[in-house]
Design goal:
Largest sheet: 3 strands, antiparallel
Number of domains: 1
Oligomer: single chain
Distance between the termini: 35 Å
Number of helices: 5
Shape: elongated
Length: 103
């Protein structure tokens, strides 16, 4: 039985594929997922993220920087505190999809 092949152009170019791979690399680290999990109900400061995630404060700060640089999080200053939140709520759709697939 032969397989029907439709001649279609790829939807993504090499640069786009590379950017997507980098995005998923950021999300592939367990500590970063723990941090994102703490932010699913809204913005929090480093102390709250540290407490809720069970990670060390230095580790949280390092991963927050990476998540910020990737554009996954955004930061806002409030007095002497900095609050972090998920930059694009569509990230929850991705997380929900993956969780449903694993269940």
């Amino acid at each position: 039985m032969s397989t029907l092949r439709i001649n279609m152009k790829p939807k993504l170019n090499a640069e786009q594929i590379s950017e997507i791979a980098e995005y998923f690399k950021v999300l592939s680290e367990e500590s970063r997922l723990k941090i994102l999990n703490t932010l699913c109900n809204g913005s929090k400061n480093v102390g709250e993220i540290t407490e809720l995630s069970g990670l060390e404060q230095a580790n949280v700060s390092r991963h927050l920087k990476i998540l910020l640089q990737a554009g996954i999080l955004k930061r806002r200053a409030e007095g002497v505190s900095a609050f972090y939140e998920i930059a694009n709520k569509k990230l929850f759709n991705l997380c929900e999809f993956v969780c449903q697939e694993l269940l």
